[in-house]
Amino acid sequence: MKSGLCLFIAGILSLLGQVGYGQESINKEVRVVKAYNPTISDAFKARFIPTLDDTVQVETRFNYYIEPVKQPIQFRLKSLKSVGMSHDKSPELKNSYVRAGFGNYWTPMAEMDINTTRNQNTNLGFNMSHFSSQGRIKMADDQKVYAGYADNQVKLYGSRIYRSSTLSADMHFNEDHYFLYGYNTDTLSDNSLITPLNMRVLSKDSLPYQQYIVVGTALRLKSDEKSRNGFEYQLDLDYDFLHKLYRDLKVNSPEAEHGAGLHFAFSHELKNLTYGAETRGQYFYRIRSTDSLSNMLIKLDPWIGFNWEIVSLKAGPKLALNRFDSSPYLFPRVKLEVNITNTVVPYIGLDGYYEINDLLKIKQENPYLVDDLDVDPTIHKFIAFGGLRGRFLPKAAFNLFVQWEDVQDWHFYVPDITNPSRKRFDVVYDDGSLLRMGGEVSIHPSENLGFILKGHYYQYTLDSLDYAWHMPIWDLSFSTRYAFREKITLQADLYLIGSQFVPSEDLSKFGPAQELNGLIDINLSGEYRINQNISAFARVNNIISDHYYTWHNYPMQGLNFLLGVNWSF
Q1: Which residues does residue 284 pair with via DSSP β-bridges, in sequence order?
Q2: Kindly report the CA angle at 476 between 472 and 480, in degrees rounded to 5?
Q3: Under DSSP, is residue 255 helix (H, G, I), strand (E, B) or coil?
Q4: Which residues of 160-178 are buried (b: 16+ CB within 10 A; e: fewer)?
Q5: CB–CB of 421/380 below 8 Å?
Q6: pLDDT tens figures, 25-74
Q7: Strand, coil or helix: what is 134?
């Protein structure tokens, strides 16, 4: 067997030697009889297999020459037809519009905006709007109650454009009021009602309501672009006077608040280095039915930023000083971004801030407030966050994040237990932490079609309270918009909000907390452009007619719609 194998190997080696010897004697002329046409053979995936280095190397030489041949090219000229030219008119811009509509629940709406024509230096405008509802809502005990509200706004605004900055100002007036139609319909363990039937107010004339009137002005001076030395700035001045009135058949409880603010920010860019600062001063003077109080807050946020090839860093301390505190609050401010591929940008950072809860702010959170409510400032001591943003397609963007924060003097709204009907809300405080995670994805396949998806999850950890009252556990929204030939615009919105918890009215029946069911709100809207000046619109809200609760004892309207027209001029 071994001798046969040796003979076989010797034969192979002798054959290779003859081939090598034969190649050395080749000396013939190579004549190309056909034009060279290079091709690429089919590609196959290479297998990852071991390779052996051969000690025998054979050098192959092959020389050839291609005779160039001139190819005649024929030109054929074709005459072009003349194209008619016409004067291209610039599109006519509409400076003003009037919009009006009406819906069920006796819901009128109207809006007018009048603006000056195009001008290189100045712009003036006037806006006013009205939206209200006078409908009735069925409560949990099958009683229908008047649930009206109104929102009225008037605004005069203007701007002046200078060589490198813009000065803008406005004066505004807002009036909104809400009827306090909510009452408690829960039963106690002895089958008695917390709110007796004879104490339930159902008619408009007997219902109390809460009114807010805001009169104010704002002034802003802002640089339009960076100066030659890389300097930008912005200066803001604002003042608001808020008048709050609670009115029922027996009591009128007025309150007032003056609020003024000054804000200045600047930045300076030097190659890869940028630095700047923000400073803000706020002053509040509150006049209540029993006393008055005032407060002043000063904030200073200097920062410095670095930009390297794919890395950007912004950092600096944040200071806040309240007139009633002996020492300032110090918060971190750091944000690091890494632009890996111009499409994926991971980021991490630290933050914190001092939050003033003035009457103008908290009435936007909850309009059904008790009298003389003074909400303490909220201290967001430490915030750590990180995320990933970017684009996974040319027309699709995303932002995914996770955030954890440590909060002091956190306020939560609870029903006022001094009133048997629980119509208004007070606040309770606690310290704790919040873990928040979520994201947003927007896709725009074309200019006429777009999708936006948002979602958040919340995890509250509190020191004393059982739950974060009236705070949802999660929320999700989806919106899509489609425009067809600049004539029809359609939009659909879906809102999902998880369950919320409120303090229990009956510990033996509900335990320490009652759960408010989450909501599913589906809205559809559309607009049809009749001509360049006139269009018609329609909107349908809460299609599944779910009487969900945003606040305890306050169910919202069911299926509601609004129809109207818009005139631009």
Answers
A1: 259, 295
A2: 150
A3: strand
A4: eeeeebeebebebebbbbb
A5: no
A6: 444 444 444 444 444 444 434 333 343 333 334 344 444 444 444 445 55
A7: coil
Q: Which residues of 18-28 are buried (b: 16+ CB within 10 A; e: fewer)?
A: eeeeeeeeeee
Which one has a higher pLDDT value, 444 or 83?
444
Tens of pLDDT, residue by residue over 316-351, are 999 999 988 888 999 999 999 998 877 899 999 999
Following DSSP, what letter does each residue of 365-426 receive, concatenated?
A: H-S-BPTT--PPPEEEEEEEEEEEEEEEETTEEEEEEEEEEEEEEEEEEEE-TTSTT--SEE
DSSP tag of 187: B
Q: What is the DSSP string of 267-301?
A: EEEETTEEEEEEEEEEEEEEE-SS-EEEEEEEEEE
Could you give the CA distance from residue 320 to residue 353 in angstroms, rounded to a whole number? 8
Amino acid at 531: N
What tokens appear for 164 in the block?
A: 């490198």
Longest dimension (CA), the chain: 124
Q: pTM score, two decimals?
A: 0.79
Contact indicator for 465, 436 with CB cutoff of 8 Å: no
